[in-house]
Write a structure and sequence with these properties.
about 130 residues, alpha+beta, 2 domains, about 15% strand, transport, ion transport
């Protein structure tokens, strides 16, 4: 859609310059106005890329709620050092330390809890 609008603006600007050759300022105005469209479209994408490169915690995720949910899993004694980083537009990386008698079972339960509460498909590495 933006390309069509830009092409239409170039056609109109070219038509004006064709009819009135001394109005070359129209070309500059069209260039400035229509360069704002792609810039406005790419700024949100650049913002997301910046936050991914900075490995920030996802805005929409309540990390304290995730930690409370993991602490409520049967078999978990202690949870500390929970960190969540946004590593792609739709992916996070979770890291935590916990004390429990059966770590594989607790990890499976904790990932099931995260899949249900956060709506993400997860896997884990021990």
């Amino acid at each position: 859609m933006a390309d069509m609008i830009q092409s239409l603006g170039v056609l109109i600007g070219g038509g004006i310059i064709w009819v009135k050759p001394k109005w070359v300022l129209v070309d500059l105005i069209c260039t400035l106005v229509f360069s704002a469209f792609p810039l406005a479209a790419t700024l949100p994408m650049l913002k997301n890329i910046f936050w991914i490169l900075m490995e920030r915690a996802p805005r929409e995720m309540d990390i304290e709620k995730v930690e409370r949910g993991i602490k409520r899993i049967k078999g978990v004694k202690i949870v500390h050092g929970l960190h969540v980083w946004e590593i792609t537009v739709e992916g996070e990386l979770y890291c935590l330390a916990m004390s429990c008698p059966n770590p594989v079972l607790v990890l499976k339960r904790s990932f099931l809890m995260l899949e249900i509460s956060e709506g993400k498909r997860l896997g884990f590495i021990m």
